Amino acid sequence: MTERETLKQWLSESENIVFFGGAGVSTESKIPDFRSTDGLYNQQYAYPPETILSHTFYMRRPEEFYRFYRNKMLFPDAEPNRAHKALAKLEQEGRLRAVITQNIDGLHQKAGSREVLELHGSVLRNYCTKCGKFYGLEAVLESEGVPRCICGGVIKPDVVLYEEGLDQHTLQKAVYYISNADVLIIGGTSLTVYPAAGLIDYYWGKKLVLINKSVTPMDSRADLVISGPIGEILGDAAGV
Predict the structure, then answer these.
(1) Strand 134-135 vs strand 121-128: parallel, antiparallel, or unpaired?
(2) Which residues are annotated as catalytic?
(3) What is the active site of this protein (predicted)?
C-alpha cells in the first residue's frame, strides 16, 4: 500500500482527526509562504519582514508597518483550495474534530470549516486599540497611512506579531484536541516556529502524518510522511 493509500484508509477509519497547518496550506491559493525560495522572507525590503512584523516596529514606525502589511499580507481575493475543502468535508462527515492553523487568511472558514483555532489571529478581524470597536478587513485595506477608528484610536489587525504572545485559551484548546486525537495530520509547515511547532509534543497516538513539500525536523517522528502539494494529497484522500 502506498503512503497516499494509507492516508486515505486512515481518514476513512477515523472519527477523531486533527489537522495542524501552516503557510504551505495556502500557497495553492496564491498566497506566498514565508520561507520558500520565492517566499516573503526572500524578497528585498529596507527591513527584514520579521522586523517589520514585530510589535516594536509596529509601535515605532506604524506608517511603514501598514504600507508593508497592506502590500504583502492581505489577499482579499484568495479562494480556498482543495486542502481547505478536503478538511471542511472531513469535518462535515464527522471525522475531523478541529483545524489548528498558523495562517491568518481565514480560508479554512471560507471553505466551510467550523472549528478553526487560529494561533496567529486573522487579518479579517481588526480592532481599535483605544475603544475596542471591531472592524473588518476593509477598514485597513481601504484606508491610507495608519487606519483610525471613529473615536480617533489606531485600528490594529487582530494578528499575533513577533514579540507578542499567543492567546492562551486558543493554545489550550489546541493542546486538548492534539492530545486526544486519533490521527494528527501536520501539513504545509516547516515546524520551526515556536511555540506552535511544540504542539506536536502533545500527540501520543500512532498515526502522525506529515505532508510537506520539503523535509522538516520532525519527519523522523512521523508514522507517515508524504511529500508533495498538500491540496492534491488531501483532496485525493478526502475525495474532493
Answers:
(1) antiparallel
(2) 120
(3) 120 (proton acceptor)
Query: Which residues make up each annotated binding site for NAD(+)?
Result: 23, 27, 34-35, 102, 104-105, 120, 189-190, 212, 230
- State pTM to two decimals: 0.93
Domain 1-31+79-120+164-240 has what CATH class? Answer: alpha beta
- Sign of the Cα torsion 7, 192, 228, 100 reads positive
- Which residues does the annotation place in the binding site for Zn(2+)? 128, 131, 149, 151
Profile the chain (240 residues) by mean pLDDT over runs of 10 residues. 97 98 95 62 71 97 96 95 98 98 97 98 98 98 97 98 96 98 95 83 96 89 96 97
CA dist 240 and 232 (Å) reads 9
C-alpha cell at 91: 469535518
Name the grid cell of 219.
Answer: 519527519
